[in-house]
Design goal:
The protein is of the alpha+beta class and about 950 residues long. The protein is built from 18 helices and 47 strands. The strands form 14 sheets. The chain has a 6-stranded mixed β-sheet with strand order 10-27-26-25-11-12, with helices on both faces. Strand 25, helix 15 (about 595-605) and strand 26 (about 610-615) form a beta-alpha-beta unit.
Length: about 950
């Protein structure tokens, strides 16, 4: 007898369309198997030869969490390059390293959770480092480039599958899982949705991740916008992956649903396809889905829809066609090209903020480099482990010679004396103790434990001199002479064991708390005080030690000594990405930490030729006038120090541009939770004050001339062209920027809005024409009276220059469009959320499924204004659809209000009732509403 080879199932046939193959595989999976696919860690289906799969591989600026990899500049630094082609190449390199690493470690996933396209609306947001810009146009341009690099150029198979984070209106870590972003329709469509939409429409996005927060009172994980907007932007199947633990938050912290079965069903039907919850344990999620199916909250078709989207991504990644996958053999990892690209990206990210001519430094300059970050190459939560490392000090040594560079870190050198008269002592560590946190890789680095293989601190008569650095908010680190930071492991003992502060809960930070004539030393991570015991120094609930802080040397004194002997001082200041401004923790101020301000002042006092080099994940406020020069760069990855040194030396002319406004003072900032960029006049689009440095700002070592501006409006495009000439003596990059503003708008419009930009390299004397085809849709705004975008007819300024404020050329064009029309409120009524102006109002969910309503903040009182309402020949009555309890007053200017009161509270916040009252109006008027009490208003109607 001859054995027959079983036929190849259709889902294995590479000649069939993916849709048919997915249909076939779905039909072969049991319901239990399909349900199991809904968790982040989908198990293998061995009977069908289907492998296990996990969603999620962090790759924001290099492969993260999985051990050594090429580390590129932080995302905000990539945004500062304003260079899409560069960022595309970075994405390509990262995706190739993902593939290469997966070939040797199956824990590395191909579904990458990058990039982050949340707009950098507020500079105190703890995760500022993860975004690209405050501007939606620039953000989408950079994100599109990165996703195209991650995806690859093959028409069928993707190198990796990028997922955009974090949907939607997510810019606060304070209460991030329980706070609601109040986003009016204009802000939603003109600002928050734009960066997502334009990136998705560009065709290299595999999905999105909803954010922890709520928007308009509804958790993002049950957002109707996933269906109403996201899935309408592309014909591709988009995979929506929950953020970690967010599905459980729907019940546990947000209390939006009573049971996890209801919450899971609501998230799945809203569009969440993969549930990231409870780590690798899928049992709870699958049990909730099963429970929802049993209760009739879900159907098998709902499960199929989610599984189909996951399978679509897996097919595109070539999982089922290993012989046809062009990326299967990709092995590029830590190549010379990747190292050169990391340096190029770091160089292009440097922004020259100010320069009186001290830069570039002459080759024979004697340099003092000082500051807490002068000899650091900091990583953040989403970094890989460094293979190569370059600090500013090392870069300057290499470029100028060690004999011309002096160094002072500026830390305070201290001893901690106990009440018994002894001192904290760091025992010698064994030689084999040199390991780096995260070098082994971890699916969840939050679970990496502190080291217990080193001896705990003790006390003795001499003590160990420690380096004290204060990172602001009185949060400090203590470092032993061998470079290791004091840290606390799970057993509670203090050890000099960490190469850097880090971890989900940082175990290397402390606070000195005045107590009597001394100080208590509180460990921030555990909240416990340090105690001296017979077994060693540890944190404990009781018996805290009272320490005397003995300062052996102030950091400012060391800085003064080296600064006075130098030709130029370079102060390297900024932040540690794991301390005071990070995921889970927003900043409280724009100011530099006090210790760093003292270091800067000491350097200035000792040497007027002082250069401030800020290395940070976000903007700072400082006084630039007394500085010879100032630069900013994000944490620049493995080549950061080399890049900074080459810019200081003039080997590279700086051409980075600020991707967000740098404000002069905390007083310029709105409340962190105020998401109304229009009403609160936020970002360069609406800010009416004087910034410290404007959006798009960045100086050069050469000069550029702009000329020959020409504009032609044809069909649906405005064709804008001009020339840029390098009028200086050095080859350099310039970033030409095109902005617009509506000259006479009927509603508040941006005072500047970026339309296009281009980074170009010009030799001395070289002249080049720059041209942009700008679609007329770029001049539209969201008209709440129509529920859609409208091009308003009239004049528009076109502004060309080197920043949003450095305008070199301008002209005005008059565009045809649709004129404004009064709201036909008699015929259509008013959606309460479609206001023009408001005060004391927040937007909330009309129902748990869809729709918006408005309510006074904290149940107080608030006002709404609706401009140009057309009451036609006349009205006789007004109706309001409300829930809760309270009063609505409806009025026209100069007329007594109609008062509608809901005296008895409705059964729940979603149980609406209709109230009516007489109301006489005719013609076109502005309508004003005043709301009082814990009342939700959804609709206003008129009769006549």
């Amino acid at each position: 007898m001859t054995a027959h080879t079983p036929p190849t199932p259709p889902f294995r046939d590479p000649h069939l369309p993916f849709a048919k193959r997915i249909d076939d595989l779905l039909s072969r999976l049991t319901l239990d198997e399909k349900v199991s696919f809904l968790h982040q860690f989908a198990p293998a289906v061995e009977r069908l030869g289907v492998a296990a799969f996990r969603t999620g591989q962090e790759a924001l600026h290099g492969v993260a969490w999985m051990g050594p990899a090429t580390v590129f500049p932080q995302a905000v630094g990539l945004g500062a390059t304003w260079n899409e082609e560069l960022v595309r190449r970075v994405g390509e390199a990262v995706s190739k390293e993902v593939r290469a690493m997966r070939a040797r470690d199956e824990r590395v996933g191909l579904n990458v959770w990058s990039p982050t396209v949340n707009l950098l609306r507020h500079p105190l947001w703890g995760r500022n480092e993860e975004g690209y810009s405050e501007d939606p146009k620039l953000t989408s341009a950079i994100a599109t480039a990165y996703t195209h690099g991650l995806r690859g150029e093959h028409p069928t198979y993707w190198r990796t599958a990028p997922v955009l984070k974090h949907w939607l209106a997510h810019n606060n870590e304070t209460g991030r899982d329980v706070t609601s972003s109040s986003v009016r329709p204009r802000v939603l469509h003109e600002y928050d949705l734009r960066a997502f939409r334009e990136t998705v429409e560009a065709g290299a996005v595999a999905g999105v991740m909803p954010a922890y927060n709520l928007v308009n009172g509804r958790p993002n994980h049950v957002s109707p916008y996933l269906r109403e907007h996201l899935r309408t932007w592309t014909d591709e199947e988009l995979l929506v992956c929950s953020d970690a633990g967010a599905p459980s938050n729907l019940v546990d912290s947000e209390h939006y649903f009573d049971t996890h079965e209801e919450a899971t069903a609501a998230a799945l039907t809203a569009g969440v396809d993969s549930f990231t919850d409870h780590g690798t344990d899928s049992s709870k999620i699958t049990a909730r889905v099963r429970g929802a199916l049993d209760r009739g909250l879900l159907t098998e078709a709902d499960v199929d829809a989610a599984v189909r989207r996951q399978l679509s991504v897996r097919f595109r990644l070539g999982e089922f066609d290993p012989r046809h996958d062009p990326h299967a053999g990709t092995g590029e990892f830590d190549t010379p090209a990747h190292r050169a690209l990391a340096q190029e990206a770091a160089e292009q990210a440097v922004v020259l903020l100010r320069n009186d001519g001290v830069l570039p430094l002459a080759p024979d300059t004697r340099i003092a480099v000082v500051g807490l970050l002068a000899d650091e190459c900091k990583l953040d939560w989403y970094s890989g482990t460094l293979i190569h490392r370059s600090t500013p000090l090392e870069g300057l040594y290499e470029r100028f010679g060690a004999e011309r560079v002096a160094f002072a870190e500026g830390v305070d050198r201290v001893l901690l004396k106990t009440s018994a008269g002894t001192y904290l002592h760091v025992p010698a560590a064994p030689e084999a103790a040199d390991t780096v946190r995260g070098a082994e890789g971890a699916l969840d680095p939050a679970l990496l434990a502190g080291r217990t293989d080193l001896p705990p601190l003790t006390t003795d008569a001499a003590g160990t001199e420690l380096a004290l650095a204060d990172w602001g908010e009185d949060v400090l680190t203590l470092r032993a002479p061998d470079g290791r930071y004091l840290s606390v492991a799970e057993d509670g003992f203090l050890r000099a064991s960490a190469d850097q502060p880090g971890g989900w809960v940082v175990q290397e930070t402390f606070r000195l708390e005045p107590h009597g004539n001394g100080h208590l030393l509180r460990h921030v991570g555990t909240g416990r005080h340090v105690s001296v015991t017979a077994e060693g120094v540890k944190v404990a609930e009781d018996n805290p030690e009272i320490f005397e802080l003995i300062v052996v040397e102030r950091g400012e004194d060391a800085v003064t000594r080296v600064a006075a002997e130098a030709d130029v001082v370079v102060v390297v200041a900024g932040n540690d990405p794991h301390i005071n401004g990070r995921e889970t923790e927003d900043r409280t101020t724009l100011r530099l930490p006090a210790q760093q301000e003292r270091i800067l002042e000491a350097a200035r006092a000792a040497n007027p030729r002082t250069v401030l080099a800020l290395v940070s994940a976000y903007p700072y406020a400082f006084e630039p006038g007394r500085l010879s020069a100032a630069l900013w760069t994000a944490h620049g990855g493995q080549a950061a120090g080399t890049a900074l040194a080459r810019v200081l030396a003039g080997d590279v002319s700086p051409a980075g541009r600020l991707p967000q406004t740098w404000y002069a003072d905390d007083a310029d900032l709105p409340d962190l939770l105020d998401y109304d960029v229009i009403g609160a006049r936020q970002t360069y689009l609406y800010f009416e004050g004087a910034p410290l440095f404007p959006f798009g700002h960045g100086l050069s070592y050469t000069s550029f001339g702009y000329a020959d501006l020409a504009v032609a409006v044809e069909d649906d495009l405005a064709r804008v062209s001009f020339t840029v000439t390098n009028t200086g003596e050095a080859t350099a990059d310039e970033v030409a920027q095109l902005y617009t503003r509506a000259v006479d708008p009927s509603v508040t419009r941006p005072r500047r809005e970026l339309l296009a930009h281009r980074r170009l390299t010009l030799a001395p004397g070289e002249r080049r024409e720059v041209s942009f085809d700008v679609p007329l849709s770029a001049f539209t705004f969201w008209d709440v009276t129509r529920g859609g975008r409208r091009l308003e007819p009239g004049p528009y300024d076109l502004l060309v220059g080197a920043s949003s404020e450095d305008v070199r050329l301008r002209t005005t064009v008059t565009l045809d469009g649709d004129p404004a029309a009064p709201r036909p409120v008699l015929r259509r009524g008013l959606a309460a959320v479609d206001f023009d102006e408001h005060s004391g109002i927040e937007i909330v969910d009309r129902t748990k499924v869809s729709g918006d309503a408005v309510t006074p903040v904290a149940g107080g009182s608030g006002e709404l204004v609706y401009r140009a309402c057309d009451f036609g020949a006349g009205t006789t009555g007004v109706t309001v659809e409300v829930a809760g309890e309270g009063t609505v007053e409806v009025s026209l200017a100069g007329a007594p209000p109609a008062v509608l009161t809901l005296d008895t509270a409705t059964a729940g916040p979603y149980d609406y009732t209709t109230l009516d009252a007489p109301f006489a109006a005719e013609g076109v008027h502005d309508l004003r509403l005043r709301l009082r009490g814990p009342l939700r208003l959804a609709l206003v109607g008129f009769s006549g």
